[in-house]
Amino acid sequence: MDAPLITIEEPGSFAWRVFHERHPAMIAQLCAAHPFGPDVRDALTALLHETTAGVVKPLEDDALDHDVWSAWTAERIGRPWAESSFLWAESYFFRKLLAATGFFAPGPWRGVDPFAPMKRAELTNAATVETLKALDELAGLSSADRDAAVVRAAVWGNQADLAFQLSAGAGTEGAGPISGSSEEFWSLFGEPGPVHLVADNAAGELSADLVLVDRLLATGRAEQVVLHVKPHPYYVSDATPKDVLEVLHHLSGLPGEAGEVGRRVQDYLREGRIEVRAHPFFCAPLDFAEMPEDLRADFTSAAVTIFKGDLNYRRLVGDRHWPASRPFTDSVSHFPGALATLRVLKSEAVVGLDPDTVAALDAEGEPWRTKGSHALIQTSPGE
Ligand SMILES: O=P(O)(O)OC[C@@]1(O)O[C@H](CO)[C@@H](O)[C@@H]1O
Q1: 345-357 residue pLDDT tens
Q2: Does 4 reside within a domain?
């Protein structure tokens, strides 16, 4: 079954506004945060122009991923950006943005994460400080309440997404999930085995994810955890291997439970019980249904895979205008094993909802799919 792809063509639609409102704001923020010279600023202005009013142009750098991107873009070169799917266009936009800031070229900006100042600020802002302090309360909870709290923090941690906050502002935790529960999440775990977590944002969200990882290992539900992150800076705040180290460095210097978690996770890394991987496909403009064989084999070996966040969800179910009541298990039948998704809704694709829930949400007259005020937990036991 297929539904129409979400594209960036329709003026006023969510995807159109990401290109025409969010991206200009993001580029202004980058130029304020870094003393980029005229060459970089001109390249960023040209990128905005190309992606909002032009045709798709090839990459001009010779970075290591140049050839793979040539294959991913071949069919689209010379065609209007407006015709592109949202998923493809946004991914290529971020790849081109890195090229424009000199990330791949010899020179002073090589390897410099343009989003690092924003991620760093988020790690120490009031909301993150409060969330990390609240971890101290975990010790006084029953085991079941602790399980629920850790999952809730990991789900709502997904609200801390700096690309999203460029247009929506920082959010506050909403009501319970519109689908699923922490019990449903934990029921996926049987005999201890390798658990994979496909991370999303750095800073606050990654901190909450590491608390979940710590819980998985401490309770024996996971015997090893593989943490998948992005190989390059992406979607503003997505976590890279460097971000994992920065977050751990920060956590392990804190007092209380946050510090304990940070130091335990560092020990797990030293022992090889946590492994960090950054497969190039995590920055690909494609659905997970199209993942390469090596990554598929990796996921096949997992007892459970946890997908965090909005973008991973879009790539998992297909970034299309699905009927919201399409069964979640049908959408993820391409995936080789048991999985859970923990996501705050920040874009249009959604499946697996009860029709009454959809009717109630529609009746509120709010853009509930894109507002960042609703969360979901969806699971599939695999074959
Ligand atoms: O994957 P994440 O961090 O949860 O969300 C990514 C996101 O902010 O980017 C897209 C628009 O820029 C939307 O899909 C979504 O709101």
Answers
A1: 999 999 999 999 9
A2: no
